[in-house]
Known about the structure:
Strand order of the largest sheet: 18-19-22-26-27-28-29-30
EC number: 2.4.1.18
Pfam families: Alpha-amylase_C (PF02806), CBM_48 (PF02922), GlgB_N (PF22019)
Subunit structure: Monomer.
GO cellular component, one term: cytosol
Largest sheet: 8 strands, parallel, barrel
CATH class of the largest domain: Alpha Beta
Shape: elongated
Keywords: Carbohydrate metabolism, Glycogen biosynthesis, Glycogen metabolism, Glycosyltransferase, Transferase
Helix content: 10-25%
Amino acid sequence: MSGTREAGMPASADETLDALAAGTHSDPFSVLGPCHGPHGTFVRTLQPGASGVTLLCGTGLELPMTRVHAGGIFESAPVEAASYRLRIDWGGSSQEIDDPYRYGPLLGRDEIRDLAEGRKLRLAECLGAIPVAIGGVEGVRFAVWAPNARRVSVIGSFNNWDGRRHPMRFRHDAGVWEIFIPELSAGVLYKYEILQHSGEVQQKSDPVARQVEGPPATASIVAPVPAFRWRDGAWCAAREARADRPLSIYEVHAPSWRRHPDGRPLLWRELADTLIPYVRDLGFTHIEFLPLTAHPFGGSWGYQPLSQFAPLPALGTPEELADFVDRCHAAGLGVILDWVPGHFPTDAHGLVRFDGTALYEHEDPREGFHQDWNTLIYNLGRTEVRNFLIASAVFWLETFHIDGLRVDAVASMLYRDYSRQPGEWIPNRHGGRENLEAVAFLRELSAAIAEDVPGAMLIAEESTAWPGVSHPVEQGGLGFTHKWNMGWMHDTLRYVGHDPVHRKFSHHDMTFGLVYAFSERFVLPISHDEVVHGKRSLLGKMPGDAWQRLANLRLYLAFMWTQPGKKLLFMGQEFGQSAEWNHDAELNWPEAATPEHAALRLLLRDLNHLYRDAPSLSCTDFDPGGFRWVVEDDADQSVFAWLRHVGNDPNALLVLCNFTPVPRERYRVGVPLPGRWREVLNTDAVEYGGSGLGNLGGIDSDDRPAHGFAQSLSLTLPPLAALILRAES
Length: 729
């Protein structure tokens, strides 16, 4: 008989059986299943509520088992059998099962060692619920990290959610509990019941579940082993070569982009049919989704996730998400996910005091509680927690072929005093405010991704002047591939929010970003955070009447798309949605169809295509040699002009922006090349909803020096408009 063991009785036999029946025994595998007794090997099983149990030997022998405890403990007579099953009489119905307690340890020594040392990056292949076959028997292997629990059981509909029925084996070296339950399969609902040393019992969702119920339900779901057939091999192989190519990102909150008439969000297959062609037509290179990790509160937009390995269930299955990504790649679109390793919510079924102790979080609220968000902060000084998070990042990139992760709220991770008053935080070991554990974690994260998923992006939402966020770790940086330029965003939005008559007093807001533009690999973001919570939509930030607001927005988008840095725009801003974003409703698509808003979308499309097609705009985003101010000091007229070029490229682009509603006739600007300069794009063009003022047909340079050049142009600058010109070769 496999897996036999001594019938361990640490106390008296009666006390052991009492503890087993009460569900408080900490080592059930020592007293259940095949056991050695004074008269030979016998089988013990715990079946609370059963009327009787029969041992079915592989030889065909059937042995009624004896009830030895009123709590449902049965024992067989001594028996020799290579395998066996149990027939349980429930008093009116019967059930045959394979006994989970006849199986030996499940996780191998190498897995246990890697878990203990935090070197198991493919955590979902080890922990969680995994359909497997052992000795030809199909079932599900469960494993969970809970080192300080007194007892952990798997509960579900298969055992009436009774924690006495399937207590797990404890692997001391890694603090992991495990069990194989035969004859379960994908789709089964389950949780872990955890008996704390305090005596309190809690039901917890699986931290490494790959599928979960949607709120308000909280159970985990046994997911099938991923078997999606990918068709994007060439795309993934070429990711490293795309590192410095155009990056223009359409940021999306998937549940509220479009909805069915009854308010239901579109499913992944429906988004594939609608969102992909829409974004591709607009000329974006990537779609970035607000967090898709499952979360209990929709109003958090996903930024308070509990399931770091399970996709949002409201949009479809994990396989349908994989198909969406595959179809994006087939259409030439990359996919980026927002990912949240800084904090998690306090929902009782989640990670909070998971095994009765501060396991994932810090014990001291000065380190472990986010006052702004009422969330808990991961204890990044703990090896297993770092491994859990890094494994989550690698899981999304590898399992779903995601092209990059945008890491949320990095500043809150880097500083121990983030949003705290004196006395509300604990200094680091050197007495400083820097979170040294978070720095080490982020560097370890970037190294792991670079090694395991070459070419994947790691983008930081970091709002401070922390040095070297997007510099390599070996150069003292954090190792991110890109960083959001929050300073540029705040400065420029403040400027365009002023009435044009006052803009000359804030002229530096539009030029200051170039002082540090090449210190990091920046993304210029206009994100969801800027168009919600009373901040108004992007169009709503613009001053003036209806025509001026749209003109201001056209000008601002052209300014953004021609400045150094990659681009990100939140959904709805491409057509100038008037209202703030509402996560409970779809975008205002009727407004998008009106002529003036459709014209704005056309401009954004043309800006994207120009950005992608003109090397001087996209290949020099991180190269100071590709940008030159021509006019940066004309505050009185609120005019700016600059060149974008690649080396001595004769196809350099000249950009001029007039941030007042006053047309500028015969405005002189120096140019590096003689000859005719032709408008490539004019945001005041009639097709974009403008007045049609400009320099049709182009304009010839003359020999009048200006702005350090021997040649110059005398141009008409339309009101509240941007011009992009190129010298004719």
